[in-house]
Amino acid sequence: MLDERQVRLYKTEMCRNWQEIGSCRYGHKCRFAHGEQERRHVQRSPKYKTQICKTFHLTGTCLYGVRCVFIHDEHQDSTNRLNALATPFVFHNEKMNMPSDFMWFTPLPFDRRYSFSSSSSSSSSAVTLT
């Protein structure tokens, strides 16, 4: 049985399988729309898409894609996105009790295909493809 939220959101988003491969194993029983003619419009929260998606802004990708409730500025290329994130860090010189040189730090995009793991036979870390 569908709860109130599921009923309210029924066929309000496009089916990912339908969009990507052109078919869906659930057919007419799918909770998602198979084309714009099936898609229902839903009343969104006043805060919907009013804040920038931090994940997309940092990495250029977001696991939620079009379903993300935050803003993705997809027209901004990755160079501009990273330059906008560059922030100065001040390293403090404890001996002289004053800040030392400024250093610019720009976060690097995170690629989920790579993970860092330690091998039990070795104390060094290795990059593995997941």
UniProtKB/TrEMBL annotation:
Annotated GO MF terms: mRNA binding; zinc ion binding
Protein origin, superkingdom: Eukaryota
Pfam families registered for this protein in UniProt: zf-CCCH
InterPro entries named among the record's database cross-references: ZFP36-like, Znf_CCCH, Znf_CCCH_sf
Keyword annotations of the record: Metal-binding, Repeat, Zinc, Zinc-finger
Zinc finger (C3H1-type) stretch: 9-37, 47-75
PANTHER family tied to this protein: CCCH ZINC FINGER/TIS11-RELATED, PROTEIN TIS11
Domain C3H1-type span(s) in chain numbering: 9-37, 47-75
Protein name as it appears in the record: C3H1-type domain-containing protein
